[in-house]
Amino acid sequence: MKRFLTILLATLALTGLLCVTASASSFDNAAEELATIGMLKGGADGFALDTVPTRGQAAIMLVRLYGAEQRAQDTYRSGRITCPFTDVNETTAPYVAWLADEGLANGTSETTFGAGDPCTARAYTIFLLRALGYQDKEDFTTAGAQNFAAELGLVDTSALHGGNFLRDDLVALTYQALATDMKDGKTYLLDHLIQDCELNVEGGEQLVEKVENYRAVTASGKSLQEGLSAKLSMSMAATVSTVAPGQTQPSGQVEQMEAAVEGEIKMLMKGNPQMALDLTVTADGESENVKMWLQGDWVYAQSGEETFKMEVGQEYADLLEASADKNNSAFSLLFVEDVDKKVSGDEVTYTMELNNGLENMVNGIFAQAFQAAGLSESMMGKMNVQAFTIRYVVKGGTLKSASADAAMSMTISEDETAGTAMLGLIMEMKMDVSASGSAVKISFPDFSGFEEVIGAADGPTAILGTTAA
Q1: What is the pLDDT of residues 85-138, one digit of tens each?
Q2: Which residues are paired to 237 by β-bridges?
Q3: Which residues contact 268 (CB under 8 A, 6 or more apart)?
Q4: Strand pairing of 286-295 and 274-283?
Q5: What's phi and psi for 343, nearest 5 deg?
């Protein structure tokens, strides 16, 4: 059980502390907010987020991202532009005609646009990059478009969950793009649409304020891009109960536990990402030191006298570096429900409420870790987040501290016959920044004696990334 909990701790540290999206989520909240500014429109079945988007639907979204929907319809209806393709219906024709006239989209042939064909993640990413002012061949190549977009903070969620590119993923990319800088660096996409394209945001004022506050939090972390050293403190109150196989209610006595964690985290995100975590955990009057390191493709953990290691995959490290470059807020905009701002003297406090995207992310990580370890679905852990609030204190435009309050529950099965453990958690966490940039240095111990805990000669040797052949 201790080994399992070590894997769980390592997984949560890599996903929670480093805050990288790594699972498929349902972005209903983002879809609804896009609808408030006319960027997305649903039908009788809602937004149909679980369906594959067509090239015609993507064309409509792209025109809206240029703030040209009314212009496209007016010029098409007046006859000033015509649609050169025969496979486009009358609803979509004004949008495709405008894109073709502006040289922003090509057909699949001289006479067809492929309006009913599936829109790929790469194609839509290229559309988004053009809307942000980037040019094909000049700024990015077709093959490298998604990697280039990831460096800007535009993560293709379909690639992370390994499934088809759905309208859900199209919404996710579009939503992230709203807070992304234009190529010229003078403003960001949503502000550009409002100021230069006269986008009507009546009814969407809350989204505009949310994006502005989110960008302020993100900007406050720019000085921490190269390195971060911070003091951490956390208190936890937990309840633990068990449910016998075949039952739904806890059986036996419910245990209660309180614990406190004090320690330090160091992170270097430029180049090859590195991390060192040194914590002292106190529970039931006893203390134990837990250490963890990320170096190269591996995460190493030490709990007391026991040491473990597991491979995380180079793609994961690459994603961390790309995230550090452009996504400096603790959480992707996709996971943010709201951001409130309060000013007191020369300090600004931003209070961020998270939505259920965080819960979906963590559960996706659990699923990947369990599958990579060859464990059955009946043993899979599952998290439910009741509340998660983060407060950032910014002074002089630089992040000085961050604190969080969270309430969540978790179910874990150690094996298929022992029943299910139910864990309830209430946590309070705080991070005080002590150093940043080049002042941060990380030293590593000798990892030669660390035992590999996932994989074997004939099985997978990586989680959260590549798998050895």
Answers
A1: 999 999 999 999 999 999 888 889 999 999 999 999 999 999 899 999 999 899
A2: 258, 426
A3: 226, 227, 274, 275, 440, 442
A4: antiparallel
A5: -110, 130
